[in-house]
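Design review, sub-item: ligand-bound model
Attendees: FS, YL, KQ
YL presented the inputs for the adenosine monophosphate complex:
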Amino acid sequence: MTSIPFNNSYAALPDVFYTKQSPAPSPDPTHIMVNDDLAAELGIDAAFLHSDTGLAMLAGNAMPKGADPLAMVYAGHQFGGWSPQLGDGRALLLGEVSGYDIQLKGSGRTPYSRGGDGKAAVGPVIREYIVSEAMHALGVPTTRALAAVTTGADVIRETRLPGAIITRVAKSHIRVGTFQYFYANNDKTALQTLADYVIDRHYPEARKAENPIQAFYAGVIARQAKLIALWMKFGFIHGVMNTDNCQVAGETIDYGPCAFMDAFDPMKVFSSIDGQGRYAWGRQPQMAHWNLTRLGEALSPIWGSDEDTTVEGIETSLENFGVAFTAHFQNEFALKLGLNAPNAQFQEITFQTMTAHAVDFTLFFSHLRRLNTDDHRTRFTDLFNDKSAADTWLAQWHEAKKESGIAPDDSQALMDAANPIYIPRNHRVEAAIQAGTTGDYAPMRRLNRILQNPYEQQKDADKYEEVPKPEEVVQQTFCGT
Ligand code: AMP
Ligand code: MG
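KQ shared the predicted structure:
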């Protein structure tokens, strides 16, 4: 019955890496959304996903031939505290297609569920679908959403909510926490096996290096540095940058209490469980560095040299994170400002101005790129507390552009490609979730469609640019798990 050509390389690893597990059946599943474009990219027949047999797979009711469902084991530091055993508590890896993991999330209990029910409510499924696909369209490496379905059974959270399952696609689901699990168990053999697997699958160039482990580590660091800079470019706040949510292939993973900053504030936090601001917008680079330090520790037993050399190798590699992150971050903000080279001083002035006026992050840059059309000049100025502050900043901006020597058309092209008009604004995501919870998926589908082309002005979509009305402002986000 299958039209999915599964490969099962992870299932071929030794038993200590996972537990084989079947999904829990869904009593009365229905489709919420199917991602036809992604299916095509993966070489999966979208018609199959839309069919009843496809639905049975997406809902965990029937495993197609070739699928070998399993729950992966991992550990992790959550908000800095060590959890020796986490693992897929509500997710199952079905297998790989075209090199990508296909995973059901919300498909029932596993040996790693601890106290959880293994299920997902429709709200978090909608959030992950919308935001992960939006991130992809923005140009941020991310896991993807292949489909979302309802299960026909309610889950109990603070209230009764419809249950749902998202089919997640990822380069792989191996996390820093996967390495930590074997490190903490002193299982050097498994660590080596895992590293070899990850190198072959995600960092094949590291194989040729003198020290493949060090080269692999450097590769993870390089990808994280770029990833975090891209998050910040769009005002994205992940919310739970625990080591178990830090994927070694370099994709954004786990869209829990994530949110997009509206009023600019570098210490902005949305997550209800992040009281200390550990994962604030501006702290994300430090937190990624912290996670990467944990990965270095976990790799130390297989680094392949004496202790001093190992420690030195890890530290040298880590130093690169700050250098690479800063370079990416400054480059990305130069693009957003239409400059052909970073200008650290002007960037700082810009951040200070945005903070002082609590300017909406996305509108600041999206009006800036449209300054010469319609009423965007006025709308840009209106973002500030007073017109003179806007004029002062604009004068400094013109000066910075002049200094950089960039031609106006080139500057325009940089801004057009770097400044989205549409992002998944928190209140729009919330509205899509609210509607979805009552079985109305139209707002989700419309939002998803608009976010496929975030850089292009679209007809009848003005309200998707706008900041929330006071009563629509999302103050806090929740994991909802
Ligand atoms: P997360 O915060 O989503 O990264 O999840 C952290 C850990 O909690 C992972 O091991 C998850 O599998 C597990 N978990 C989250 N929600 C549930 C649930 N509803 N049932 C079982 N395990 C869960
Ligand atoms: Mg997680």
